Amino acid sequence: MQKAETSIDPVLRQFRDYVLYLKHSLNAQAAGALKKKALDIEREIEQLIRDMNVSIAAADDFVKVLQGWQ
């Protein structure tokens, strides 16, 4: 029984090391995925701003046309 007990500690230590490695690995993967997602969102926001500027310019042109009719 004592022999079995002494063999448990090295196994548990190795198991804890594996768990710690997996945590770090998954955290790194999650951080990488979030970074990519943040870049995607940033690109989408930039496109939205460009689209809004086009719409604003078109609205300004329309208002100028209406003002010319007065």
Report on the architecture of this protein.
The structure is a single chain. With 70 residues, the chain is mainly α. Helix content is 96%, strand content 0%. It is built from one helix and no strands. The longest helix has 67 residues. The protein is rod-shaped and about 100 Å long. The N and C termini lie far apart (101 Å). The mean pLDDT is 86.
Concise summary:
With 70 residues, the chain is mainly alpha-helical. It contains 1 helix and no strands.
Topology pattern, helix = H, strand = E: H
Shape: rod-shaped
Protein structure class: mainly alpha
Overall average pLDDT: 86
Instruction: Specify Rg, calculated over alpha carbons.
Output: 30 Å
Distance between the termini: 101 Å
Which spans of ≥5 residues are poorly predicted at pLDDT below 50? Answer: none
Strand content bin: under 5%
Q: In which range does the helix fraction lie?
A: over 70%
Instruction: Give the beta-strand count.
Output: 0
**How many distinct helices?**
1
Q: Mind describing the biggest β-sheet?
A: none
